[in-house]
Design goal:
Blueprint (H helix, E strand, L loop, with lengths): L7 E11 L11 E15 L14 H5 L14 E5 L3 E5 L2 E5 L2 E4 L3
Antiparallel strand pairs: 1-2, 3-6, 4-5
Length: 106
C-alpha cells in the first residue's frame, strides 16, 4: 500500500535520530529513519486535508541571504536556467554547487 497525503498512519520500528548535518528537509530537531523491519499501517480517514506541508519562503528573503542555509526551502517559480556544477570548500570538505535560476510572478 502507498502512503497518501492527508492520511493517518501508525508507524512501527522506526529509528528517531537528531536532525543534524547540512540540507535538512525540516526544522524539527529530530527525524524518523525507516528500517528493514519498519511497518506503516493506515488508521482511517483524516480531517487534516487542509494542512499544507509546505512553508514557502519569499524569494526576497532567499536573495537577501536572510535564511538558514542548513535547511531546504519551499519555493514556487519557473525554472529558467541551470548553471554549471562546481565544487567549493565548505568547512574543510569539498561540496558541490549548482546555481539555478527561478522566475517568480509576484
Amino acid at each position: 500500500n502507498d502512503v497518501k497525503e492527508g492520511g493517518v498512519y501508525a508507524f512501527k520500528n522506526l529509528d528517531v535520530a537528531t536532525n543534524g548535518g547540512s540540507y535538512k528537509s525540516a526544522r524539527h530537531p529530530y527525524k524518523l529513519n525507516f528500517q528493514f523491519g519498519s511497518k506503516v499501517q493506515p488508521l482511517g480517514p483524516s480531517n487534516l486535508s487542509n494542512i499544507s506541508p509546505f512553508m514557502f519562503v519569499p524569494i526576497a528573503e532567499i536573495i537577501g541571504g536572510n535564511y538558514d542555509t542548513d535547511y531546504l526551502v519551499d519555493v514556487i517559480g519557473m525554472l529558467t536556467g541551470v548553471g554549471e556544477e562546481r565544487q567549493y570548500d565548505r568547512n574543510g570538505q569539498i561540496a558541490k554547487l549548482n546555481v539555478i535560476e527561478l522566475e517568480a510572478d509576484g
